[in-house]
Amino acid sequence: MTPDDVIGALAGDGLLYAAVAVLAALAIVILALSRFLCICSPNEILIISGRKHRLPDGSTVGYHVLHGGRGFRIPLFEEVNRMDMRLIPVMVEVHNAYSSGGIPLSVQAIANVKVTSDPSHVRNAIERLLSMAPSQIGAVAQQTLEGVLREVVAELTPEEVNEDRLKFAGTLARHAKDDFDKLGLQLDVLKVQSVTDEQNYLNNLGRARIARMVRDAQNAENEANQQIAEARAAARQRAETAQKQAETRVQTKQNELRGELASLEAEAKSLENEAAVAAQTARAEAEQQLQALRTELERLRLECDVVLPAEARRRAAEAEAAAKAAPVVQSGKAQAEALRVVAEEWRAAGADGRDLYVLQHLQELVRAAVERVARAEVGQLSVIDGGDGKSFTGAVASFPAAVSEVLRQTAGAIGVDTQSLLASSNQTGGSQP
User: How far apart are CA 102 and CA 230, in angstroms?
Assistant: First the structure.
């Protein structure tokens, strides 16, 4: 083995020893820290006792309280104790607890308690409950709550205990607070589970209350039904009123519509009548024009068929009569001479004589005029009446008018005014007795 190998082997052994020494030192440090360092969980408190500590109020105690985090202790001089702060369920039962009305009650409740973390009361728990098991702490809390429960029941009536359990539990928690503060405990939850009595006072009270509730419910139901009936009746009345008003408005509108329709119908009827009358008038005028044309046509036909042949026969007759009358010309001249003499006598007599002669022969003149008119034949006569009878009356009155016209023409032929003569004759006749 060379010197270099020896030196290398020694160097390797030195590194190994150094590593072992470092590990040993680290283990010693960890062991020392574990002996000096104290770690507190959130659900517990650490009590490090052995040295004096001054409190904020100036007093001194021989321990230090640590809630959460970590702290240091001096081995051999300080001791570390732990107190569990988790919840402890406690069943609380009291029997024959007399209430304010003298009725014994049985009350069952459940509570959750724990060691308080309040710095002003945690030292009470340390001084009274340190090193006690949770079951022992629960027993202390149970006895305390049972005593407080009896005190609270004695102050309340059975109705108050049974009806408002939240108020009852709140009163119980307020009364237990002072005792729990002295013990260093904290009451988290308190619930009253049941309240009973051996005399069935609460049951009877419940029956009466149930009866009242049933009665009140029936009364409320009857009132509600009455209100519903009244509301239905009012709604029905409003609906009927609204329906009647709507029917009235509909009837009014229908009457207005009927009036408008009647007015429009009357107007249409009037227009129709006017149109019919206009049509009838136009038709009558057309008929009149047609009749005038027919009359003119008939006149022309008669003139062609009757007048012209008659005129020709008359001229032929005149020619024949002239031929035959030649022998009697002289006789005619004699008659003319006689007529001349008569005319001279008429002229000598004047107008009065002529009128007198006409009056004496007026009957013959009228008869001759009537016969002349009666000889006239009317082939067809159409009368168009407008509904008032005037056209027919005019047609009937045409005969006297024709007679009067013939008489007027005859009087004109002889130079006598028959109308004036008849008027003067009537006046003269009327003045005679």
Answer: 50
CATH architecture assigned to 85-199: 2-Layer Sandwich (3.30)
Phi, psi of 7 (to 5 degrees): -65, -40
The string over 251-260, giving b where at least 16 C-beta atoms fall within 10 Å of a residue's C-beta and e elsewhere, is eeeeeeeeee
Phi, psi of 390, deg, nearest 5:
-70, -35
- Token pair, residue 146, equals 């049972």
First to last CA, the chain: 219
For residue 393, the model assigns a pLDDT of 59
The length of the chain is 433
Q: CA-to-CA distance for 178 and 422, rounded, in angstroms?
A: 160
Q: Which amino acid is at 26?
A: L
- This prediction has a pTM of 0.42
Whole-angstrom Cα Rg for the chain: 79
The residue ranges of every structural domain in the chain are: 3-82, 85-199, 361-377+395-419
162 CB-near residues (< 8 Å, 6+ apart): 195, 202, 205
Query: For tokens 């022992």, what's the residue?
Result: 136
CA 234 to chain centre: 19
Q: Residue 356: its pLDDT value, please?
A: 59
Q: Give every residue of the chain whose pLDDT is below 70, as ranges.
A: 1-14, 29, 31-35, 202-210, 293, 297, 300-313, 316, 319-433
Q: Pick left, alpha or beta for residue 184 (phi over 0 → left; psi -120 to 50 → alpha; otherwise beta).
A: left
Measured between alpha carbons, how far is 290 from 299 in angstroms, rounded to an integer? 14
pLDDT of amino acid 430? 42
Structural tokens at position 43: 């659900």
Give the pLDDT confidence score for residue 255 in this predicted structure.
Answer: 87
Q: What local confidence, expressed as pLDDT, does residue 325 receive?
A: 57
Q: Is 146 exposed, middle or buried (0-12, 13-18, 19+ CB in 10 A)?
A: middle
Task: Beginning with the edge strand found earlier in the chain, give each strand of the sheet holding 88-98 in spatial order.
Answer: 88-98, 104-115, 185-196
Q: How far apart are CA 394 and CA 399, in angstroms?
A: 10
DSSP H/E element including 341: helix 329-360
Give residue 142's pLDDT: 92
Helices (H), 303-417: 308-324, 329-360, 362-374, 390-396, 398-414
Tell me how many degrees the CA angle 269-270-276 measures, rounded to the nearest 5: 85
**How far apart are the C-alpha atoms of 87 and 84, rounded to whole Å?**
9
Strands, sheet with 79-84, edge to edge from the N-terminal-most edge strand:
60-66, 44-54, 79-84
The answer to whether 110 and 145 have CB atoms below 8 angstroms apart is no
Secondary structure of residue 75 in the 3-state scheme: coil
Calculated CA dihedral for residues 415, 420, 421, 424, nearest 10 degrees: -160
